[in-house]
Amino acid sequence: MPIVEVTMMEDRSFAAKEAMVEKVTVALMETLGAPRDAVRVIIREVPPWHFAAAGVLKGKPPG
Q: How far is CA 15 from CA 18, 28, 47, 50, 51, in A?
């Protein structure tokens, strides 16, 4: 059973997450031969102030 964890910043739409999960599922089915019902995708969302790229935080906490 393949399990994929995706960590990303909050605020993406349900539709975007749904589309991403479908494409990841299909990729695992095609590349690993995994049956659809065996694929697991976990989405971990973090606030922008907990996410940095190139040493720079992507946002500030409210307030």
A: 5, 20, 19, 23, 22
How many whole angstroms separate alpha carbon 13 and alpha carbon 17?
Answer: 6
CA distance 42 to 9: 14
Would you call 62 a catalytic residue per the annotation? no
pTM of the entire predicted model? 0.86
| 50's tokens | 């907990």
Q: Report residue 28 as tokens.
A: 């695992």
Candidate list 2, 47, 61, 62, residue with the active-site label: 2
Q: List, run by run, the mean pLDDT of 10-residue segments along the chain (63 residues).
A: 97 97 98 98 97 95 89
